[in-house]
Amino acid sequence: MKGNSDGALIVIDVQNDFCPGGALAVDGGDEIVPAINRISRDFPVRVFTQDWHPPGHGSFASSHPDNGPHDVIDMPYGKQVLWPDHCVQGTDGAAFHEDLHTEPADMILRKGFRPEIDSYSAFFENDQTTPTGLEGYLRSRSVTDLTLVGLATDFCVAWSALDAIKLGFKVTVLLSACRGIDLDGSLEEAIITMKDAGVVLV
Ligand code: VGL
Ligand code: ZN
């Protein structure tokens, strides 16, 4: 059968650790679940991502004895914000929110699994060059347009949206189905950067 698709929904990191009660809780992170459930089947292609770190991951403040959460350090690939331990592979915190309907997912993409490098974006790790494979998957399914939802607006959603624009996709971010971390104004900055890059924000 010819996969005659063009639009994909990309659901970013709707995992317990990013929801209230989680290790890196985003305010209202769980509030977006019903909206995502309502729209997911409207898209011909649906990809869900999971932040998926090994214990002792390089983005964890606990891996850097001289630093604390939210410190910014220099890694070989550039600046890196340090986070509390979160989304450790196989833990309950790394699981999808229990009310999120994951049956519609065509593909579940895990990212951030290399110990020494973080991956906010669903397309490239934080060195901005190591691919996750998502671009190839979407192209092989004839996808040209992406709608992004999920957590967090100012990190994984924004980095994914900006990479998608660079790769030539048409990108919409559905802000009502996203929530942000907002570290030192990072939410407003991300929104301006996405808008300037040509992301459609609705
Ligand atoms: C994320 C910080 C660290 C996200 C993931 O999903 O936005 N943020 N890891
Ligand atoms: Zn992470």
TrEMBL record:
Enumerate the Pfam families for this protein.
Isochorismatase (PF00857)
Is Metal-binding among this UniProt entry's keywords?
yes
Q: Give the pathway.
A: Cofactor biosynthesis; nicotinate biosynthesis; nicotinate from nicotinamide: step 1/1
* Enzyme Commission identifier(s): 3.5.1.19
Give one GO biological process term: pyridine nucleotide biosynthetic process
* Record-level Gene Ontology MF annotations: metal ion binding; nicotinamidase activity
Q: Which UniProt keywords apply?
A: Hydrolase, Metal-binding, Pyridine nucleotide biosynthesis
Entry-linked CDD domains? nicotinamidase
The protein's matches in InterPro entries, at most eight in alphabetical order, are given as: Isochorismatase-like_dom, Isochorismatase-like_sf, Isochorismatase_Nicotinamidase
Give, as one word, the top-level EC class: hydrolase
Q: Show where the Isochorismatase-like domain sits.
A: 8-200
NCBIfam families reported for this sequence: PRK11609.1
Put simply, this protein is called Nicotinamidase
